[in-house]
Amino acid sequence: MRLSTLYPSACAALLAGLLATAPQAWAQTAQQGTAADAAAAATPSTAATPASPYVMPATQVWDMPSDNGEVYRIFVSAPDKGEPPKGGYPVLYVLDGNAYFGSFAQARWVQDYLPVGKAIIVGVGYPGDKPWDVRRMADYTAQLREPLSPEVRPFAQYKSGARAPFLDFLIGKLRREIAQRYPVNLERQSLFGHSFGGLFALYALYERPQAFEAIVAASPSMEWNGQSILDEERAFRDKVQAGKVGATSRLMVVVGDRDADGDPESARMLAERLEALSGWGLRVRLQRYPNEVHASVPAQAANDTMRFAFTLR
After folding, report:
1. Which residues form the signal peptide (predicted)?
2. Are the CB atoms for 305 and 254 separated by under 8 Å?
3. Which residues, 6+ apart, have CB-to-CB distance to 90 below 8 Å?
4. Residue 150 in 3-state DSSP?
5. How far, in Å, CA of 239 to CA of 118, rounded?
6. Rounded Cα distance, 132 and 137, in Å
7. Spatial distance between the Cα atoms of 36 and 136, rounded to a whole number of angstroms
8. Cα–Cα distance between 301 and 170 in angstroms, integer?
């Protein structure tokens, strides 16, 4: 809606004033500009101010070791003014923090005045300036199956199978550290992971169904390691249907329709299979982005993820 529609009298007066003073103002500006140009021509130019790295407001970063000696870089975006909500701030843990923390932190910061911005983003990454670290393969995946399938053989040189201690670090030592530094709600802890991180997010749901209030698995690499995650899904479904699980995390599956690595059809079928467990309390949502590819899904998903994680239901 145009401003003139809301305030017709004020806009008309403002426009009339501008038109009445415009000739004098333009003449004065022209004279000032000519004088300024002459002064600039007579004064030697000075060097530009040296550039410095940009630091996002309302953020902190530190390195932290796990109990088994692995060092992680922890990025935090938190409100720096006002009172926390009753019970403390909800928290969203974002895997591959070096790559994705910035998108989530910026989205939270510019919405600081809204309920969705009154929350804490914790990026979990690795020391260094690269977006991804090879250590993520160990932290996010199961041990490679033998015999190795052709698609995983090139990766056999890297460590794998450390997802259990990494999950312990996330919901143990790191969660306690965040609670010591910030007023948080320990009942409202959520997790976002993409690609291998999305695969890990599914593992977290199947392995510790009550560890997070909400989980977002974006473009999960379910084809990895001979689709071994499907065996864990079946075991999880059996336990839920047998009444051995109880309350579980809410799950949102995110995928781009042009995502060649995170097959949108596989994501759709996963959501459909797990949605069948709604009678046992599991809540599942599928979020598809028609024009997004594998690498562009996380930035697109930042706001939807925060709404899913931080909106009370």
Report:
1. 1-27
2. yes
3. 119, 120, 184, 185, 188, 189, 190, 213, 309, 310
4. coil
5. 36
6. 10
7. 57
8. 22
* Tokens read off for 123: 């990026």
User: How many other C-beta atoms lie within 10 A of the C-beta of residue 118?
Assistant: 19
Burial zone of 255 (CB within 10 Å; 0-12 exposed, 13-18 middle, 19+ buried): buried
Between CA 219 and CA 223 the distance in angstroms is 11
Type of residue at 123: G
Distance CA 275, CA 110 (A): 34
Task: Please enumerate in sequence order all residues whose Cβ is within 8 A of that of 307, keeping only pairs 6 or more positions apart, or say none.
Answer: 116
Residue 141 in tokens: 């995946």
Cα–Cα dist 110/112, whole Å: 6
CB 127 within 8 A of CB 71: yes
* Distance of alpha carbon 203 from alpha carbon 114, whole angstroms: 32
Q: At what angle do helices 97-110 and 297-310 cross, to 10 degrees?
A: 60
286 touches 304 (CB < 8 A): no
pLDDT tens-digit profile of 132-166?
Answer: 999 999 999 999 988 888 888 889 899 999 999 99
Render the burial of 40-79: b for 16+ CB within 10 Å, e for the rest: eeeeeeeeeeeeeeeeeebbeeeeeebeeebebbbbbbbb
Strand partners, 253: 217, 286
CA 294 to chain centroid? 15
- Tens of pLDDT, residues 200-255: 999 999 999 999 999 999 999 999 999 999 999 999 999 999 999 988 999 999 99
Residues in CB range of 73: below 8 A, 6 or more apart: 61, 62, 63, 64, 97, 98, 124, 125, 126, 127, 128
State the DSSP code for 171: I
